[in-house]
């Protein structure tokens, strides 16, 4: 009986959403295709490489298509010691990744959108050097992935509002 009631409740929610004009972000025509036609040019360095890889994955970059947009990225990284021990050694660090992007139309060469995202992650600093380096690299990867997700959502929202 509880299963039938939950199915009925889901059906009512679906009807309510359909009646209010709700449209999924990726349900707008052209948003997915426009996202996959963004070519990312990232700065050199580990963080730039990670950002480009995560953005190519997030935007589902199709290398067979001619890009409609080029995204130029500027990345800044900062690391702050947190959790200071009595002997003045940090046990945790806060890693801050800021990515400023400019989306340029390849057809006209004009700037289409400018944005900036900021991601903060923390990681433990171990006494063993290799473990500390591995933790820092993991924090860079997590921050780049989160920044790419934020940029993807900003671009999808912008494209959906521009297409409507």
From TrEMBL:
<dbReference type="GO" id="GO:0019867">
    <property type="term" value="C:outer membrane"/>
</dbReference>
<dbReference type="Pfam" id="PF04390">
    <property type="entry name" value="LptE"/>
</dbReference>
<protein>
    <recommendedName>
        <fullName>LPS-assembly lipoprotein</fullName>
    </recommendedName>
</protein>
<dbReference type="InterPro" id="IPR007485">
    <property type="entry name" value="LPS_assembly_LptE"/>
</dbReference>
<dbReference type="GO" id="GO:0043165">
    <property type="term" value="P:Gram-negative-bacterium-type cell outer membrane assembly"/>
</dbReference>
